[in-house]
Write a structure and sequence with these properties.
Length: 718
Amino acid sequence: MRSHEPGSHNELSGTVHGATIQAGAVHGGIHFAAEANSVRQTPWQLPPTVHVIDRLRELEALEQHRTRALREERPALAAVSGLGGVGKTTLALRWLHALRPHFRGGQLYADLGAQSTDGGALPEEVLGRFLRALGMSAQQVPATLAERTALYRSLTADRRLVVLLDDAATAAQVRPLLPAGRSVTAVTSRNRMPGLTVDGCYPVHLEPLDAEAAMELLADTLSDDRVSSQPDAARLLVELCAGLPLAVRVAGARLAARPERRITTMVHALAEERGRLEALAIEGDHDVRATLDLSYRTLPPRAARLYRLLGLHPGPEFGSAVAAAVLAQEGDAHERDATEPLERLHDASLLLDSGETRHRFHDLVRLHATRKATEDEPPQERAQAMRRIADHYLASATRAEEIIDPQHRTMARDYGAGPVVVADVGDDAEAALDWLERELPSLMAVIRQARAAGFPTVGWQLADALWPLFLRRKFYDDWNAAHREGLAAAKELGDTVAECRMLTSGGVGELGSGHHDRALAMFERAARLFMDRDDRLGHARTLNYRGLALQRLGRSDEAAELFQRAAAELPMHGDHRAGALARLNLADVALTAGHTEEAVHHARAAHTALLEAGDSYNAARATTVLGRAYLAGDRIDQAAEQLSSALVTLRGMAANYEMARAVGGLAEVSERRGLTRAAREQYREALELYSSVGRSHSGEAESARHRLRRLDHGESEA
């Protein structure tokens, strides 16, 4: 647990530098102010579009609605409804992609998952992703839905965006996700959404294609002359597909793979299958399901097995390595090569591309695949496949953890019986972090299902493996949810070691979210468990955690007492680095209290010990505290030397919060030396750095802002 040890200012150290833990939830206008200095990004998130047949009337209506909204200087909102497989998303993508030249603010996309078994995406989760896509750091994303909604509308007020909210369940799910300004939003849903009328929504209800249009789509899919040479059979086929584009494309894909086969063969087979499913009809979906059943039964055995086992995947999309994992059989390396069966599924239009080497199901196809897994796979095989998927994510996340933060890799990883397939997570820390972030929805889905699926160890171990991502990119909602589930799994297992890990790691997430009382309670429970196990080192480490929580609660004297104990006890139990961090915390408490010489003493001792431990990042932090202590004691030259030295080290580490503290100190040095122009520039840089980590209204930032404002009101240049 070495990399869990926190330093001052609610920071935790690790092998990747610059990681900060926010001292509390930053709310309201603080976030709006932060936007002024955040990195403005332009997201382009829409999935690729496909050819659209016979929707000209609907496209024209949507465009007229947009033009009218533009003329009236308001956002354009449209809801596209219709049966599953009727082409709602295809129409929306065709419309929105065409708008890109006029909407340079970017494109946002969210699958709201109305058809998913877990009830679909929560608006606050989607807003968190949107805010980060628009350039907000994770630290700047507020905690509550109301605050996220307000910030989202503030950020989008002057941007021209297009947004696609796919597969929505209700108007209430959609409403917080509507951007402000002159943006364009399309919502797709199986249900009409009259609740959005008050928001100026324009409804478009899609009906299935008529016979001529469906035959055109079939011809487009076949890319040969069979439709023109066999028009009667083609007409019968599209009628059996009920004019649903998804069914037509799936049937066409099967015929396209068999250029020698006449359309009548498919007609006879589909007529029989459709009749078999009549009793299962749900809003016309039987027409799609009949087509899917027919295509499924003609897949080669490995492709069919991959199809139904991928239906067990808990997330919205997946990489090719997941396919290799579900096919893996012990001792059979060939079975892990999923390239050919994946291609078969794409050729049959049973899978959609979702970026390079990534795949996704249409929602109806996923439901069909899941049903086939239930029907055609024995319970034991399903359980083993689900475990292989979970093991794949656990092993891949663990590999990323080892790359990013090797010091943190101290806890066990337990895998099932089958081969474990590990994804390519990249070769460096940044690439590994990107992999974890991209896969986070699936990783969280595995954590949530682990206990019910019978592998609770995966729940807490995967939460543990995600520590480097949570620490560095501050996904507090997922951080807290993962550790709550991990803690429940550890308790269910009766694993006290795992429970302590979940309490300390999870407590740090709660601390960063501003839940200081909750964090303190978790740290204190971990301390009791360590004492019950006679784990003196573990108990000593909780002293730092508990001190940080008390410091955030304004109980500085109690915090200092715990830091003092940690500084004494941790080296006695062999953890000199953690003891040095406790000294650094003591230096910060002393500096805040105005005890400059005491701060100098602790900062020097911390700096020496941290350098000896090879922790250059925290050694630089100690140098910053030392420089600020010298500044408080009016030792200007020594302050400048220490702060400059710290800044040289920190600039190469993307440690924005610590850089802000060093630059702010150097600004005060310049101001005292009469170098007003340099001081102004340094104060502005410090404020930008504070804003980038969500600390734009911290006490230090407010002090820098006050000093800058005073300089801007007429003091002469030196």
